[in-house]
Amino acid sequence: MEVAAGLGLGPDLAEPYGRHRAKISLDALAPPSDSKQEVDRTQGSSGPLRATRGPSGPLSGKRGPSGPLSGKLGRYILVSAVTPTAAGEGKTVTSIGLTMGLATLGHRAAASLRQSSLGPTFGGKGGGAGGGKAIIAPLDECLLGLGDDLFAVESANNLLAAVLDDHVHRNGSPAIDARSITWRRAVDVDDRALRRVVTGLGGTIDGVPRETGFDITAASEVMAILGLSSDLADLRRRLAEIVVGFGRDGTPVKASSLHVVGAMVALLQRALQPNLMQTAEGDPIFVHTGPVANIAHGNSSVVADLIALPRVDYLVTEAGFATELGAEKFFHLKCAATGLAPDASVCVVTVRALKSHVPGAPLDSEDVGALRVGAANLGAHVANLRHFGAPVVVAVNRFPTDTPAELAALREEALAAGAVAVAAHDAFGQGGVGATELAQAVVDACDASTPVPVLRLYDLDDDPVEKVRKVATTLYGAADVQWEPSASRALARFVKAGYGRLPVCIAKTNLALSHDPNHRGAPTGYTFPVREVRLAAGAGFLTVLAGSIVTMPGLPPGSRYTGIDVGEDGQVVGLR
User: Fold this and answer.
1) Which structural domain, as residue segments, surrounds residue 229?
2) d(CA 56, CA 33)
3) C-alpha 232: how far from its chain's center?
4) pTM of the model as a whole
5) What share of the chain is helix, strand, coil (3-state, %, to 5)?
6) Are 382 and 430 in contact (CB under 8 A)?
């Protein structure tokens, strides 16, 4: 509650939810009482923000200042990264460390991060709540305690599925062609056996048999809607627009026609309120919504950002995975919902990650040559971020095995790629004091830049095929895009139904810039394969599945659940 009070969120706006987090009332979406009632937007949107743009400057050198609100929107910082590798990049460590570093310099700073899905927490990836001295505290509350939000999403998703199947069973009106049903169920664990299932077996009283499947909750359209809604009314509107299938005449059937939207809103009302937690050093972190970036839109919630920005000097938000995934969707999907553009982008990299793109290169001993070869991947990601307009700062997450020669070569490669600054940090080992160089580089980049609108890669009036082509050829390095006939047929149905102007949300592997996880570096000249298209009308995009990507992961060998337990003192161990 002290952390909330430092943001001007008193007991009327911040409700304790246990001992280690608070739910923030949607009443906080209204401008702070001392904010100027003006709008200064780089996007020219008519969305919900009502405050002037710009920071209020350092506040007396005091950590985590709690003085009067500035009445301005804080600087908006996007954190993305190079292609993930087994060596680890530390994007969340950097996001949390940057927030702590800004606070150490005396700025009012906060972060807005996604909440962890139980799938990766118990699976192979891990929870993604930071590490070392740059973590969300307490870790077990962040990785397990926020599950009530995930359960609300899962429940709303599956309520709609149950109502839909009952509607078909009873031959309800409007009539739905059971073969056209697109709505799937969701569960928040990695369970490959549920990717394709047949429901309705057992006889006429048990429903209509049909083939369907489950998605992990993080990939549910309901999760995307929760993350992109700007308030409760927007949540209701988006839920009503969900298309669950089609009539025999090709007319889309929406959730609104099944009279279930009110019940879904009731399940999701509390989940729409952002969770406020803190870093290990007491800085505010909004942890809210958990869409993953390789199969969903990969960004934390709109409402958390809208609540935080009028109350801070700097808001750090993280887009999932790398620039061609979470960051691209941040610009094309989230910025469209907020009407905002970031003041700076940060691209996280490690020496080890770049050397990982060179087969046989040693990760723990010096190899400048391998680093320079692997730097092609960094160059591609810096170029990706530059396409969208904001200045790019490269953040080097430093490891003890990095050598001065390697760090110098990395700095040279990053500047040559177009970064405005390169700063190394050790937030993992030192916390905020280990990230002040990075924090100052971000402050300087913001001060030197002029706010510009997001430079989008495509127009909404472009044909969806052209939208995918522009993203694939500009950000992924593809030479062309090939569509499976079934994907083309599905897209044609969606376009005919009036959804051709929607932006695209491309689902692909996170392990390479391309669709192929075996591609290293910065691949070019290949054909990008589109396998499937799904309509997410409520979320407001077309989901395009490429290569072998699936929306229900499976548990990999050596999953993390084997090391998680509760000790004799009642504390959860093994989380990371």
Assistant:
1) 149-268
2) 16
3) 20
4) 0.92
5) 40, 20, 45
6) no
